[in-house]
Write a structure and sequence with these properties.
alpha+beta; 2 helices; 30% strand; globular
Length: 97
């Protein structure tokens, strides 16, 4: 029995949808989101096309009414509004500014 742990199987504990307003973070990777079903790969590809790539610095700008959708983030100088389901696909790590 192979007990080796693949680093691709380990997901960081912090997702973009869990970050506080004003947080500066770095994208670690994109994970599956069962909510999207068969379209999950297409959503991941679209996020990558928009610049949500591993290593990209992000800043959480704000949230919708009462902390709900959308989540406003800045990546590579461009501001985006993401649904929480999309933000939950993005694993991040905190960075110091």
């Amino acid at each position: 029995m192979n007990t080796a742990i693949s680093t691709t199987d380990i997901t960081p504990g912090l997702r973009l949808d869990q970050c506080a307003k004003g947080a500066s973070v770095r994208v670690v990777n994109l994970i599956e989101q069962p909510l999207f079903g068969a379209q999950d790969e297409h959503v991941s590809l679209r996020l990558k096309e928009l610049g949500f790539l591993p290593g990209a610095p992000l800043k959480v700008i704000g949230f919708g009414l009462l902390g709900a959708d959308p989540l406003a983030v800045q990546v590579n100088g461009t501001k985006f509004a993401l649904r929480r389901a999309e933000a939950a696909k993005i694993c991040v790590e905190p960075i110091s500014v």
